[in-house]
Structure formats: structure tokens, C-alpha cells
Amino acid sequence: MVHPTAKVGSGVQLGENVVIEPNVVVGDRVVIGHNVVIREGTIIGDGCVIFDGSILGKRPFRSAVSAVTEEKQLPPLSLGKNVVVGANCVLYRGSLLEDNVFVGDLVVIREEVRVGAYSVIGKGVSVENKTTIGKYVKIETNAYITAFSTIEDYCFVAPEVTFTNDNFLGRTEERKKYFKGPTLKKGARIGANATILPGIVIGEDALVAAGALVTKDVPARKIVMGVPAKVVRDVPEEQLLERQSFYRPDE
Amino acid sequence: MVHPTAKVGSGVQLGENVVIEPNVVVGDRVVIGHNVVIREGTIIGDGCVIFDGSILGKRPFRSAVSAVTEEKQLPPLSLGKNVVVGANCVLYRGSLLEDNVFVGDLVVIREEVRVGAYSVIGKGVSVENKTTIGKYVKIETNAYITAFSTIEDYCFVAPEVTFTNDNFLGRTEERKKYFKGPTLKKGARIGANATILPGIVIGEDALVAAGALVTKDVPARKIVMGVPAKVVRDVPEEQLLERQSFYRPDE
Amino acid sequence: MVHPTAKVGSGVQLGENVVIEPNVVVGDRVVIGHNVVIREGTIIGDGCVIFDGSILGKRPFRSAVSAVTEEKQLPPLSLGKNVVVGANCVLYRGSLLEDNVFVGDLVVIREEVRVGAYSVIGKGVSVENKTTIGKYVKIETNAYITAFSTIEDYCFVAPEVTFTNDNFLGRTEERKKYFKGPTLKKGARIGANATILPGIVIGEDALVAAGALVTKDVPARKIVMGVPAKVVRDVPEEQLLERQSFYRPDE
Questions:
Q1: 8 A C-beta contact, residue A79 and residue A62
Q2: Structural domains in chain A plus CATH codes
């Protein structure tokens, strides 16, 4: 079902049982798998690939008891050029994925999220609302990126990492003033299954070891480790961002 | 495909490619997204919203080597009024979601689960069979609620929390007598990425800190922390359940 | 939509909106749910059950910045006899599931994976590419099995466990020589939410306690515990694999 008000570019491949709602814009040479749903107004750039069963442009629907109850107009979901979206994903209205972003299978990206060019969002990752992700970032399988997080360019988040944003665990009215996810400065890296407490800042090119519980800010270019995490040494020279062949400081 | 024996109320919106099987009952003003599957006999209350790609009323199918091999008749899946179910979820036959429950995207709720009114089950959560969840509970993204767990009213479970129910990790026949998930007493809260061992009781209004490994019962209104978790102090007065504006003790 | 070049056996049940692509082979008495997609060439053995919304035979699509960029011809996805695949799963081309494998809901199994007979892959598990899993293995909910892992017969992996394969967290060219997931020797067991560092070998019938961070190889039949994990005692006699009624050493 392609709605007559949708604009579909040239050379587009459409799978079976695809639903394209009113005012959707699909660029040239886009490949859309079977059972894909593209909700009203979504914009898909040239050369994108959308795998089977994914849902693009879902409108948020707040629970009656949500801590964040504001309602507002959201712009449509927008994908740049050559974005790849895996199978059975759910991407919300009001977000923007820049050119060449790669999204794995079963990913949820909520509303008001921006993902920079060439970033990779791994299988099963959840990116909550109002989060900003830079370019050339990698977020790996099943990591949880909470609302109000900031992840700058070239960061790396390993599998099953947990970000948090509420030190009051759902209690007190006051807490709503303090909701704040972690901030990862440029090139920061988080090891597998680590947990980052609300509002923590991980310094530029710092490294959090696997399994760590980060309760304090981490200085730039330091490695922290343990429960709770403590500084143990400097990041080795050869692992610094400026030494990597893929780093493009002038871009 | 709406089976002729299904009863569909007034003012219902049906998406594309929806499958409604025999003897399903859909209340008034229900909104059903695209590619939704509603299996035989499922009951959906007035005002529910079911997002795209979700599967309601799946019958369990045990593996040949499952520790729990009993087979029995299950009643249909039943949703109360104004229940919201996110996209690409799988809800099993034999469970009951009371009025105003909110279920995020990519959630699995197994058979013989009861979820109380106004509770929120976050994105990617798994609620295993034979689990009871009270009202006004919040379970956040990717938490794992094992079989035979009990979560009382007003509890809070943060993202990526893991509940366990088998101290024998799949060995000995004897273990089947001891399968038991955690019990969270009224208002208990569990921090992000914590792990709770089998049969542990978290006392009323107690708090488990992020990243903790809970190996012993937690007294009421105490905070525990660490690996293994130890009592560190009392829950602050202003965070106690009785002090919260959303608490309705007479309901 | 069943492509005319697909071969469908006798007594097959097909749901609504099913897509079966060219050259697929479906055995006798297979049950295929609604909205299932079976991609080109996939082979499904007699007696398999595929639940609603699953996608079989997805072709991998590497991101532009993937560390593993080789492209090659993959054989079709192949399922043995009586394999069960849950709802909304994504199974890739180039993998093999032997007879009687059971796959839960929302599972992703990548390309070049082999899963042995009677193994169980729980809900939400990710099995990455180039991983080998033996027979009678259980991998539980939301566990993350990284690429290049080896899991021998009769192993057990509890919920939310994280395997890792890159000690360099995405930095240095040199690291690509060292990519290596964990190896679980026959009968090894990993407790809930544990984290296993790259290349670690868990000895035969050894046990990693819940929440542990494993940074060194674990000797056979020992229990390790803690962050970082240390040997604490022997696995109890009655829990050894050779004492279990389900163990079939001659098979």
C-alpha cells in the first residue's frame, strides 16, 4: 500500500506487504524489504536500505504515568543518504539520522535523537529521546543509551553497557530538575557491561574498562576500572584517537 | 484478514495486513497498527492501542529439553481498558494486563503473567512465565524478569537489571524444587544493571544501588550497594513511598 | 507470496502475508506463522515451526566502517528437522541450525554460525558471526555471544551475560589480528550478567558465578566469583556433567 501522496524516487525496490503512508518521501535507488511500515511524512534519502519488518516514523505515545508528559509537534523522521536500517527496528518520528549511518537489527531509536554521519548503532540498542550522537560513533549490541545523553564524535560503547539518568530512581518531584544522562567527550570509550551513573562526564579519549561502575567523572585519556571505578593508568599512546588511521580531524 | 467469528467493537481503527484470528474480541475505539497479529481468542479492552508488528496471544511452545515440560490449557490473553502495546512485541496466551498498562516496543511477556493497572513495561523487557507484577510498577529497558518472580505495587526496576531463579544453573534434578525468582516487596527499587540471585526478598521500600550483586535478603527501607551488596544506609525520608505525590494507599 | 521456484513439502501450514522467495525449500509438516519472510534459497527441514514475524535468510550488509570488510558467497541458511524459531527473529544466510534446535523470540543469529542439535537460544539473544555452538547448549535471555566465540556441548549461559572479543575497543590496526571471543569448554556454565573478556578459556565443567568479571582463564571444574573473578572452590560433585541424567556421552 503506497499512499498516492507519497513521493517515491526512481529505481526504488519495494518488498511485499509494504505500507507507505501519506506524504512520505523516498529517494532514488532506495531498497525497502518486505513488511516494512513507513509512517506519515517520513523522509528517506537516496540509496538507503531498509530491511524487512522495520517501522519508520512511529509517533511517541506517553504512558499516563510518564515523568515527561509534554506533548508537542515533532518533525518527521529523516534519514540522510545511504543509511542502512536492519530488520524489525522501530525508529520514531522527530529524529534525524545523517548520511551513511548504519543501524543493526531490532534497534529502537526514540524521538528527538540525532545520529551523526557514519555512526553505527548495533543490534538491539535502545537510544532514548533527546539524545545526541556524533559522527563515527559505534554503539554495540544491547547497549542502553538513556534519555538526555550526549555522545561526541568517535566514541565507542561496548555491548550491554547501561547509561542512567535518574539518581532518585523515580522518587521526589525534585528529581525532574536533575534528569541527565552521561556525556561522552570526543573519542571516549566504554567497555562491555559497564554502568554509568547519571550526569557523569567521561573525558576526551578516556577509557572505562569492562564491568566498571562509574560513579565519578573520568579525566581525559585515563583508564578507569572496578566497582566503583578508579583511575588505574593512562590510555596507551597507540590507542589514542589522534593515532588512528580512521581519524579525520578536519572533516 | 479478520476472521468472521471475531467480534470487533465500534470506532476501531485497523491498519494494513492485520490478522485477527477466530473468536478474538476487540473493544470499542481500539487502534490497531499495521502488520499486527491477534491470535485465537485474545480479548482486547476498550480504548487499547496496539502498535505495528506486534503479536498478541502467542501460544507457548516448549523446547524438547525444557526444565518445565507441563502442558496445559491456557485462557486467552486478556488486555483491560486503555492498554498500550508498543511495536514488534510478543505477548503470550494465558496472561492478563490490567487497565492502563503501558508496554514499550520489542517487549516479550510470557504466559501466566499478571500485570497490575498503570504499570509500565519498558522497551525490550522480558517478563517470563508465572510472574506477578503489581500496579504502578515501572520496569525499564532490557530488564530481565525471570519466571516465578513477584513484584509488588509501586516497585521500580531500572534498565538492564537481571533477575535469576536457579542456583544450580541447570544441573541436578533436585533444583526443580527450588526454582524461585526474586520477590520485591511494595515500593522496592532496583538500580541499573543490578543482578538479583534466586529467591531473594527485597524488603518494602528498600533500594538496591546500580551495579550491585544481591546475594542476601535486603531489609525494608535500607540501601544496599556493591558486589556482593551490603547495607550502607537508610533510604532518605523524602524518597519513601509514603512521601510521594503519586502514591495512592487507599486505591 | 510463494515464489514458483520454491519447493514446499506436504502438510505445510502457511500463515497470512507470508513471503517465500525463489529457491526456498520447505520440508514436510512445517508450520509457518503470519508475516514470516523466508529469503532466497533458505532450506527448512521437516517438522520445523516458524512463529509470526520472523525473517529467515537475511543477507549480511556490512557498514562502511566495519572492522571486518571481506565479502564472500554465503551458502543459504539451513534448518535441520524439528527446529523451532520464535516470533520476530532475524536469522542470517550462511548459518546452520541442527535438528531440534529451539530459538526463542526476538533472537538474532548472524551469518557463519553453527548451532548443534537440541541447543536452546533464549529470547533476545544475539549470536554474532563465525561462532560455533555445540549440542545441548542453553543460552538464556538477552545474552550477547560475540563474533569468533566457541561454546562446546552442554554449556549453559545465563541471562544478560556479555562476551567480548576486542581488548583494544576499536583502536589500532594491530587489534584485528587478535579478535577472539571466549571459548567455553564442554559443560562450562556462566552465571547471570557475568562479563567474559576476549579470548578467555572457561575450562571443562567450570562455573562462573553471577555478576563476575572474568579476566583470566578458568580451570576445569572450578568455581570463580567476583570482580575480577577468582577461584573460590570446586564445582560440587552432584553438579558435574557426568552426574546429570541428561548427559549422553556416547551420542
A1: no
A2: 9-62+71-130 (2.160.10.10)
